[in-house]
Amino acid sequence: MTLREVAVRAGVSISTVSRVINTPDDSFARKEVRERVWAAIRETGYVPNQTARELKLRQAAAGADASTGQIACVLGRAAHLEENPFFAQLARAIEQQALQMGYSVTHSFSIYDGVDGDGMSQQLGNGAQPTQSGVRPDGNLAQLATHLKRLPAGPLDGIILLGKVTDEVVRLIEKHCKNVLYVGRNVLGCGWDQVICDGYEATRIAMEYLVSCGHRRIGYLGETKNEVRYQAYLDVMGKICGDRPSMETSWVVSCRHDGESGYRAAGRLLEGADPSPTAVFCAADAVAIAAMRRFGEAGVRVPGRISVIGMDNIELSAYVSPMLTTVGMPTVEMGNMAVKTLLDRITKQHRLPMKIFLPNRLLVRESVGKI
Predict the structure, then answer these.
(1) What is the mean pLDDT of residues 298-320?
(2) Full residue range of the structural domain in which residue 240 is found
(3) Count of the separate structural domains present in the chain
């Protein structure tokens, strides 16, 4: 498969395909065009010829098993990428880095897909809903097992898992692939390679910034079960309140990390919090942006009456009004490191499980005020 054939399949020019592949921040071309190009690449398994030759030489030198040149990307925290912009950006970074290193992400799906789904774009057909922890009931393991069994007859070279999953899912994936890497904000208790941008540390940074701005009544919108971000929130609030049990529980609203859930959670916070918080930490930017909209509809000005801080630094966070103050995570670097580490595992460059931690960064914009 050549670049020209990918262009024909996607209905674009060769130069468009080249620029989509090599632009790391999705700033080139409309989303619709980018999706057509990447769909054509996945369908055909295209990799640049020179890169593919170099890959074979590296594998031969390392004594690695014969490679299919194919990896899968599995979404662990949502039914599809559109409901989680952070993982959508991360998945694209993984595709780009894999292509540059001679691999194609030929299979992408969510652990919540239905058996006749089209990958990440399809949700479960049985209407099952996620729990507050973001993990659906274990009964849906059958759907994941079906996806894994449908993978190529020759084994995939590896799987990259985006976001935390249950121990049952870990064991099921291990039955189907020996080279697995996890990318996320919570450390998993398994023997996989892991690329982590520490959610606990990111939350601590956000909370300490709110405290430095004079806030003591701070709310929380996000997942709470087995979630390091919530644990960090409780720890900081414990220092503020003297002991955690005295903290106002109405300031915490558990919700999934997507816009629709964030919008509803903000409404519940407005209805139930007494006294009202002066600031809210949102465990994801998608939640924060939706919460700001809900606050605005209720006549609660941001940051005049309530400050909002998020996490992820998704692209939209810099374009909402007020611009969202957030703790950014290096999605491109996370994606690049994930692919490089997985390929090192595939080519037997390391054997012990690796945990790689990347830094967070506070981005002060307009949504947090001082009191």
Answers:
(1) 96
(2) 199-328
(3) 3
